[in-house]
Amino acid sequence: MYYNEKTVLLKNGTECTLRNPRESEAETYIAHLRRVAGETHFLARYEEEVVTPPERQAQIIREALECDDRMLLAAWINDKLIGSIGVNRVSPHSKMQHRAQFGISIEQEYWNAGLGTILIEEALAAARNMGCEQMELGVYSDNERARALYRKLGFEKWGAIRNAYRLKDGTYCDEIIMGRRL
Ligand SMILES: CC(C)(COP(=O)(O)OP(=O)(O)OC[C@H]1O[C@@H](n2cnc3c(N)ncnc32)[C@H](O)[C@@H]1OP(=O)(O)O)[C@@H](O)C(=O)NCCC(=O)NCCS
What are phi and psi of 140, to 5 degrees? Predict the structure, then answer.
């Protein structure tokens, strides 16, 4: 899904550009995901597991642009990729066509500047454009910042998967399923 480029202001007054990533930026996009995965355990993959080949990432970027039921959106400050959100329909099957989901990653230096709120609002708008009726997500039970943000944006706890994530130190985290109607 094509996103009309937009400039937004973060809480500290910094200008931030929102636009689709380009195929030629596949390596930049992977490097961003790898950085965030190294800063927190809150993403699905550990840093060393973010090994998507650039050609595959370029294909993902292209398909997201061409496809009406997903969107990749990236946030840039002075041409540096600092955050991203991916939203897609949960399934093309008719029984699940009304459901959308998203994943978000922002580099630590830019946390608490309001970007998460902005990106999720754009994802909610995109999901409405897809004709979806509800947005869903999964979040680590110990991700207080993310859970507070989702609650602020109207998401409620819809369920949980016990011990969904096993960390390197041997501890387990539950996955909290949250959702809201669109
Ligand atoms: C979670 C994440 C997307 C939030 O983005 P962000 O840009 O920091 O979010 P915002 O600044 O818009 O909002 C954060 C809110 O949480 C609040 N907050 C921050 N830390 C908090 C904490 N420990 N407990 C409760 N609330 C907290 C902030 O005050 C803010 O609320 P406000 O807008 O009412 O002031 C971002 O931190 C991130 O990408 N983290 C790493 C990856 C990740 O966790 N992804 C989510 C996977 S489900």
Answer: -60, 140
Pocket around ligand 1: residues whose beta carbon is below 6 Å from it? 36, 40, 42-43, 104-106, 111-117, 137, 139, 143-146, 148-149, 152
State whether CATH 3.60.15.10 applies to domain 6-134. no
Give the pairing of strands 99-106 and 156-166: unpaired
Helix (H) / strand (E) containing 56: helix 54-66
Residue 34's pLDDT band, with cuts at 50, 70 and 90, is very high
Q: Domain-by-domain residue ranges, the chain?
A: 6-134
What is the mean pLDDT of the segment spanning 109-120? 98
Question: Which of 42, 135, 136, 145 to mutate for ligand 1's pocket (most ligand atoms within 8 Å of CB)?
Answer: 145
- Transcribe 72-123 into DSSP letters: EEEEEETTEEEEEEEEEES-SSGGGTTEEEEEEEE-GGGTTSSHHHHHHHHH
Q: How far is the CA of 84 from the centre of ligand 1 (A)?
A: 14
Sheet holding 15-19, edge to edge: 6-9, 15-19, 70-77, 80-89, 99-106, 134-140, 172-181, 156-166
Residue 14 confidence (pLDDT):
97
Q: What is the pTM of this model?
A: 0.97
